[in-house]
Amino acid sequence: MADSVHGAKAVSDIAASDIVETVPSALIVLDRNLIITSANRAFYQTFRTSPIETEGCLIYALGNRQWDITALRTLLESVIPHRASVEGFEVEHDFPTIGRRTMLVNARKIFSPGDHDGSILLAIEDVSEERAARAESKRNWQLTQSIVDTIRDPLVVLENDMTIVTASKAFLTIFGITEAETRGRRVSELLQHQWDVPALRHLMEKVLPENKPIESFEIEDNFPGLGRRVLNLNARKISQPGNHAHRMLLVFEDITDRKQRERDALSLTNEISHRIKNNLQVIVGLIAYEAKWTAAPCVQGYKTMQARIGAIAQLYDLISQTSRGRTVAVDAYLREIAKTMSASLLGNTSGIDIEVKAEPVEIDPDRAVPFGLLVNELTTNAIKHAFPNGSGHITLCVEQVDDQIELVVTDDGVGIKDKDLAKSPEKRGSDYVAIFVRQLGGTVVPSKQGPTGTTVRIRLPLLLVPSGGAEPLAA
Amino acid sequence: MAVILIVEDDVFIREVAEMMIQDWGHQTLAACDVDEALTFLRSPQHIDALFTDIYLKELVHGGCDLALQAIALRPNLRVLYTTGNNITDKMKALLIEGMHFLRKPYTQHQLQKSVKDLLGA
């Protein structure tokens, strides 16, 4: 208790004038006739005046009548007489000494004991910079909004809590929503909750805290007045310099037409593929029918023919899976060929394995089929003839050497004996290899053959689509 | 020997398949579309297996739909699909789990192996 009394006395020992002198706001005291009786240091500094010029002066007459301001007269003569205090009265004026300023004036009537007329304490705060910053921010916002409104894709800006701050005109027009319906609401709450998708919500929640943009999130739904549409949603974090608050830009791209074109193209591809495969099936069937009535020694030839037709069909599938628009990725293509051959000719229990070592080079689709048939022929030869004991290793290698593609097919089998070449099936196989190499405009590079194993090295011209000319398309 | 219902809209392909399957000692029934196949499946005719093309006439997944209806009618029926098209995710979703598949063009050897696997499964 004693401490408390002591503390109160200590505070009262601080002179009121000391407090007045240290506050940053400009303070002046006026008597009932609006004569300045005193002012603090902040006032003199702010308005570049002195006590001699100030004290005893009618406020309107101060500093060459620069305080003779209509708004101030209204405050002092019409508002103050009827109220004990006024706060936040804003006065904008061009002061000759300090230029154009916005002042925030707080006024309070103060009464000393025995003083019935009382005085007026005016606290004047220069808020010019804050107001200028606010005006600048407003101008920036208007500029941003006008840019947003010129973008044809609908978009919204979201707060940290996922509520909409602003929506572009395109968004409001396309989805038939008013600005009032969007403001402060979440995207998932709009329309008939078409965007209320858990996966989208999950991704959106990561955009701001983890700075993870959303790229191409597709939503297909019925939208009122629009019908069935496919929308592509993209979102990213946006930051304002000097502002710690972050917002999210969510853009809606209508890809319905593009999607329909893709579906039409896929449908056409399926239709063509169906017809090609059926025609190949008819050819295989014709051969099967002929083989049925053919003498036994010739049947194997028919079967080989059927297998080669099957290989062409498989290559068409692989090309569609590995094509990048106008080119085919050789590395992926080669892996698919190896996988398919392993499955069809070797099976899971085979002791022969096929390894692919390929650089990422590309060839045009026109050459992809003969290239695939060449690889198919060389690999089939190795599988059939290199490993009489049923186990071994085949390597398919492709690399770019200057302006050529080098294809090397190697096995660690028994090797080629000269007498083997005289046998008819191998002779035919090597004839096919020579034909495919000529078709591709390449050459067979002589390779030194060891006592075991076989290496076939073929150089083909690169003939690539010019760099940047390939347009990636869906396979 | 088994009774196999072959559903294929291309007459030549269907008849060559019938010829091959008959050569291996099986009995065949032939249909060119879903409706014709369902007529067999709804009849009292004994059928061990269905060998169907997926793309039937204008129906891109006609064979998939047929197989689903066939299994609903005859739960023990064995199914072998064939198609020349790439297998899309949508197609995969429509295939009956554990059923057999043969890519077009297929040789008699490949069809024989598939039929043997189908009936032996």
In short:
The complex is a heterodimer of chains A (475) and B (121). Chain A contains 16 helices and 18 strands. Chain A is of the alpha+beta class.
Q: pLDDT below 50 for ≥5 consecutive residues: which ranges of chain B?
A: none
Hey, roughly how much beta strand do the residues of chain B contain? 15-25%
Largest sheet of chain B: 5 strands, parallel
The helix fraction of chain B, in percent, is 40-55%
How many whole angstroms does the radius of gyration of chain B measure?
Answer: 13 Å
How far apart, in Å, are the first and last alpha carbons of chain A? 88 Å
Give the end-to-end Cα distance of chain B, rounded to a whole number of Å: 15 Å
Task: Count the DSSP helices of chain B.
Answer: 5
CATH superfamily assignment of chain B?
Answer: Response regulator
CATH class of the largest domain in chain A: Alpha Beta
Most strands sheet of chain A: 5 strands, antiparallel
| Most extensive chain-chain interface | A-B, 28 and 22 residues
Kindly report the name of the CATH homologous superfamily of the largest domain in chain A: Histidine kinase-like ATPase, C-terminal domain
Describe this structure in words.
The complex is a heterodimer of chains A (475) and B (121). Chain A is an alpha+beta fold and 475 residues long. Chain A has helices spanning 2-13, 16-22, 41-47, 51-54, 62-65, 70-79, 128-150, 169-175, 179-182, 198-210, 256-292, 296-322, 330-346, 365-385, 418-422, 424-439; strands at 26-30, 36-39, 85-95, 99-110, 119-126, 155-158, 164-167, 214-223, 227-239, 246-254, 323-324, 327-329, 351-358, 362-363, 391-401, 404-411, 443-445, 454-461. Chain A is built from 16 helices and 18 strands. In chain A, strands 2-1-5-4-3 form a five-stranded antiparallel β-sheet, sandwiched between helices. In chain A, helix 11 runs antiparallel to helix 12. The relative contact order of chain A is 0.05. Chain B has one domain (3-9, 25-120): Response regulator (Rossmann fold, 3-Layer(aba) Sandwich). Chain B is built from five helices and five strands, in the order E-H-E-H-E-H-E-H-E-H. Chain B has helices spanning 11-23, 34-42, 62-73, 89-94, 108-120, and strands at residues 3-7, 27-31, 49-53, 78-83, 100-103. In chain B, strands 2-1-3-4-5 form a five-stranded parallel β-sheet, sandwiched between helices. The chains are: A alpha+beta (475), B alpha/beta (121). Chain A binds chain B through residues 267, 270, 273-274, 276-278, 280-286, 288-289, 291-292, 303, 306-307, 309-310, 313-314, 317, 320-321, and chain B through 10, 12-13, 16-17, 19-20, 23, 55, 60, 83-86, 103-110.
